[in-house]
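Lay summary. Proteins are chains of building blocks that fold into shapes, and those shapes determine what they do. In this project we predict the shape from the chain. Here is one chain we studied, written as its sequence of building blocks.
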Amino acid sequence: MSFLKSFRKVLVILFMISPILPGCGGNEDPPTGFTIGGSITAASGSAIDSDVNDPHASFIDNNNFANAVQLPNPASVGGFVTNSATGNTGDRFASIPDQSDWYQASLTAGQSITLNISDHDGVSTLPNLDLYLYATSDPTTVVSSSVGLTNNVERIDNIATGGTYFIEIRAIQGKSNYVLTIGQALAGAGGAPDDLNIEAEFVPGEVIVTFKDNTMPATFSASTALAMRAESIGMQAVAGRSGIPMLFRLG
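And here is the predicted shape, written in a compact code that computers can read:
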């Protein structure tokens, strides 16, 4: 009996001191928080201006065609220009301007170039950035330009002839970050490439479709053939007919 009583006493003592045992052996605090690992990859076609306003970013002057940054196609480029020195301590261009950025790209006929002026409020006239296109064979003659299309967007649509071009973004007044996009022009309901764009109003779930092949099954009525064409791509026909843009609804 004495052995059993002693054993029970030991068990009771161990139970009583067990809550403080984790604290023995050092003064380290228990781990808190968590760690996340992973990687971030830029989308294909992404690029950046080589002389942005961040003084900690790598710097390569691209203020003229001789130093133009080569771009892929399609491409989306983030950059910065300023007509005069910013005057802000810590800016790369605090005491000097960065009036132009030049890029070079191989374009195909029918493509568009869009300049979104990021720091514009969409109402005032500042900052004022313009967009110019030059043939690489003659970088002093403007082939096409956009100078005041809207307050915050400049766009050159329907490149007439495929080839290698210089693209200039020029700060006329003020300063701004920007996004330059090279891509395919979109045809809207009227057939003009600027009828359909991100600034236009739209109805969620609806899309304007133009088929490359405008033929419809001859054995069906126009409305039935249109419905079949829409159903073949998982949509519902709303309006339109063969040979013109058609309104489809998703689902």
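What the prediction tells us: Residues 211 and 245 are 8 Å apart (CA to CA).
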